[in-house]
């Protein structure tokens, strides 16, 4: 099966929720260009559920006239669909483009940065290399890491790049594998990494959640991969409960670490955090061996 980086519906909903709750709009850049495993029908349903649009026959009309105009322009040039994706085992039929998704949320500039020609990012850069500002000469309101960091060997450098890409007051959203994804990338990430890094570097840490996606055992054999993993549960990261319950207590689903943080005027970029478990002022923790 062709390997692709991409969002399933639970991850799509998280990104949309963070953008709406924090009123994030403007300019967005994705590190690694993502596929959105979402059909037009699923996308239209989500936009109505989020209160961004109203149904109009088999189409939708966005409440914001400017967004509606920009979405219509994408449709006229066929840029609302991901025409490079042809893997029918992953998704049923044509899937939406990243341009459509971010435009619908109110973003006006949608960029992506990747080393691979396959993913057709508009900026070429190896995220293991230093000084992203030598290639990208601007700052963004939102940086999306939607399943890229696990594929980059130098994780520390990715954090530095993300900071350098954001303007003051800008946001970062991470959607990364947490557990049960062996060999998908180099790493699987614990929430403590983002909790401790962004706290140490004076970011406003807005949200950390865990997403559990479980397979629907009753789905038809012909149903796509993403539709089979359709049972999603979110919970807010709690270090005490995570430390107590994570060892051998997770189920047979896929687990993702989700994070949203905002860069402040005094935010730093290169402070190596000490994990909170070993901090002098750490909160009391219940270890897996505590009864």
Describe the structure.
With 291 residues, the chain is of the alpha/beta class. The protein has a domain of 188 residues: Vaccinia Virus protein VP39 (Rossmann fold). Helices cover 25% and strands 25% of the residues. It is built from eight helices and twelve strands. The chain has an eight-stranded mixed beta sheet with strand order 7-6-2-8-9-12-10-11. Strands 1-3 form a two-stranded parallel sheet. α5 links the parallel β8 and β9. α3 runs antiparallel to α4. It is globular, with a radius of gyration of 19 Å.
* Named CATH topology of one domain: Rossmann fold
* CATH homologous superfamily annotation of one domain: Vaccinia Virus protein VP39
Order of helices and strands: EHEEHEEHHEEEHEHEHEHE
User: What's the overall average pLDDT, rounded?
Assistant: 90
In short:
By secondary structure, the protein is an alpha/beta fold. It is built from 8 helices and 12 strands. The strands form 3 sheets. An 8-stranded mixed beta sheet has the order 7-6-2-8-9-12-10-11.
Search tags:
291 residues; alpha/beta; Rossmann fold; two-stranded parallel ribbon; 8 helices; 25% helix
List the topology elements.
Layout lengths: L5 E2 L1 H13 L4 E6 L3 E2 L3 H10 L3 E4 L2 E4 L2 H12 L21 H7 L2 E8 L8 E2 L15 E6 L9 H11 E14 L11 H10 L3 E11 L10 H4 L2 E6 L2 H7 L8 E9 L29
Parallel strand pairs: 1-3, 2-6, 2-8, 6-7, 8-9
Antiparallel strand pairs: 4-5, 9-12, 10-11, 10-12
Helix pairs in contact: 3-4
């Amino acid at each position: 099966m062709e390997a692709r980086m991409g969002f399933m519906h639970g991850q799509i909903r998280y990104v949309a929720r963070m953008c709406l709750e924090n009123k994030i709009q403007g300019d967005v850049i994705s590190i690694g260009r993502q596929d959105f495993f979402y059909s037009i029908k699923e996308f239209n349903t989500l936009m109505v559920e989020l209160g961004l649009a109203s149904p109009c026959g088999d189409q939708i009309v966005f409440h914001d006239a400017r967004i509606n105009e920009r979405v219509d322009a994408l449709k006229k040039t066929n840029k609302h669909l991901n025409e490079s994706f042809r893997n029918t085992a992953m998704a049923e039929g044509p899937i939406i483009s990243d341009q459509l998704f971010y435009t619908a949320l109110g973003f006006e500039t949608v960029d992506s940065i990747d080393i691979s020609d396959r993913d057709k990012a508009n900026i070429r850069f190896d995220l293991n290399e230093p000084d992203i500002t030598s290639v990208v000469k601007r700052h963004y309101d939102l940086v999306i890491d939607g399943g890229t960091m696990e594929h980059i060997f130098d994780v520390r450098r990715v954090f530095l790049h993300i900071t350098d890409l954001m303007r003051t007051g800008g946001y970062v959203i991470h959607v990364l594998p947490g557990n049960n994804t062996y060999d998908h990338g180099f790493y699987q990430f614990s929430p403590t990494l983002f909790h401790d890094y962004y706290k140490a570097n004076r970011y406003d840490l807005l949200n950390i959640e865990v997403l559990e996606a479980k397979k629907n055992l009753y789905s038809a054999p012909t149903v796509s991969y993403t539709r089979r993993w359709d049972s999603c549960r979110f919970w807010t990261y709690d270090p005490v409960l995570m430390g107590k319950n994570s060892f051998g207590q997770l189920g047979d689903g896929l687990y993702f670490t989700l994070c949203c943080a905002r860069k402040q005027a005094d935010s730093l970029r290169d402070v190596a955090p000490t994990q909170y478990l070993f901090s002098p002022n750490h909160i009391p923790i219940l270890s897996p061996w505590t009864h």
